[in-house]
Amino acid sequence: MKQSMTFIPTLREVPADAEVKSHQLMLRAGYIRQNTSGVYSYLPLAQKVLKKIEQIVREEMERAGASELFMPALQQSELWQESGRWYSYGPELMRLKDRHGREFALGATHEEVITSLVRDEVKSYKRLPLALYQIQTKFRDEKRPRFGVLRGREFIMKDAYSFHDTFESLDEGYQKMFDAYQNIFSRCGLDFRAVIADSGAMGGKDTHEFMVLSDIGEDTIAYSDTSQYAANIEMAPVVETYEKSVEEISDLEKIATPNQKSIEEISSYLNVPKEKCIKSILFSVDDRFVLVLVRGDHDVNDIKVKNLYGASVVELATAEETLANLHCVHGFIGPINVPENIEVIADHAVAAIVNGICGANEEGYHYKGVNVERDANITQFADLRFIQEGDKSPDGEGRIKFAKGIEVGHVFKLGTRYSEAMNATFLDENGRTQPMIMGCYGIGVSRTLAAIIEQNHDENGIVWPLTVAPFQLHVIPVNVKDDTQKDLAEKLYKQFYDQGYEVLIDDRKERAGVKFADSDLIGIPIRVTVGKKAAEGIVEVKVRKTGEAFDIPVAELSEKIKQILGN
């Protein structure tokens, strides 16, 4: 491709609204342009990279036994109502009506569509297992689009779905997809971890997220410092044990604590460690209110609360709900004398607190000398807090450390969540009707593109891994007005093209410095510069990743390129 004939609008300055490197570099290097908040056009270079990623995905999906199809982005509301997600999915689902007033959604995901498709066509266990996938644009009305294509309202996704007659078959299909994802992200040149995860609005259980390690990641990974254990911080169980102190049990006493609301304020005001304080948080759990207690230096993990109750929605109670149910304002909530309609649960660490401090459910007052087994009506103790760095690893090996990650893939065992709701059944070998057992497997293709850049760049621009680079070679004649340089550059360009390489030639009438800067910015792995030594049949070869550069006789160039690419 001739650079003068393609569309690569590079920028010298960093756009003011671009916060992270991938966003900055994709704008500066002419890969994307914003149309509106969270919506981007992918320019020719980005489109080439996306197609490389998609090809890797297709090859690994085929190897895993999945067939490609393409489903509509416009989905009728009736399907979402069948699954029960039309009302529960949330405001991220983009809803619209046609001219006849019928309700539709722009596809955020395709569980409903694929389930309806397969239920109408597959009736026997003999047709199972079956795995289908697509690569398609998805739509989610993100409240706060940010970080360029890492969190947008329109994005490219690969979603796959598998259908099985037994849970053993699901396990086998899940492992195939898990292995395929390992291969996909490895081939894309990413440093990633597969972590235990929560299924969220998708439903199902036994899920893993594939996280690209990055300081700008919005997810926190909890991992062992000595083993392979890794989990999203929301899903990491706490296996710590707690011992009570041997101090004498005190009487319960209400004390004035004017304007002291936070754990930090109470700890300082009463001169007690945060570990002696009890943090009380009121949650709305589906159709009930639950008061959750954790130790003052810990934080409530709402996902664990959700999983404990098998709830669909867990939200912090509003100030109005707190006042109506506990007759108190935030900052003074506690577990003593709580109305009977409110269930009280506590983290295991709370049971070990002796003579603690908690809110008195009265503004400006706390209790001291609190011993919850004596003073509060605790329904149950459970693991309800976030794991912390330094805690024991859940697998019993080592201690927990944290890292930030960008989620690029997610695999789920959905079970019969959708098939039962939507009556997707088959006849087993005994002629009995059974619900299909499902798996779901997603990859953010456009997000993967950005994640690759986050891990592969330097101060001069993008450094593409060879497997996904838009071009393999960048031929640059330093002076296109010099016929010797121009002719040799065009000869090499044709030679490389005929040899099957993807090659870009910078035939623009620009200064050499501009060409070199743009070349580094867009990140093509190998640059071949045709300069003053062209008359001697010598060119310069530079490796973008290492910065290594050397002069090569044209006669030896093809062999040298093969060697570099082979390494």
TrEMBL record:
Catalytic activity: tRNA(Pro) + L-proline + ATP = L-prolyl-tRNA(Pro) + AMP + diphosphate
Pfam families in UniProt: HGTP_anticodon, tRNA-synt_2b, tRNA_edit
Membrane-spanning segments: none
Xref: NCBIfam families: PRK09194.1, proS_fam_II
Quaternary organization: Homodimer.
Name this polypeptide is given: Proline--tRNA ligase
Source organism of this protein record: Metabacillus niabensis
Subcellular location: Cytoplasm
Broad enzyme group: ligase
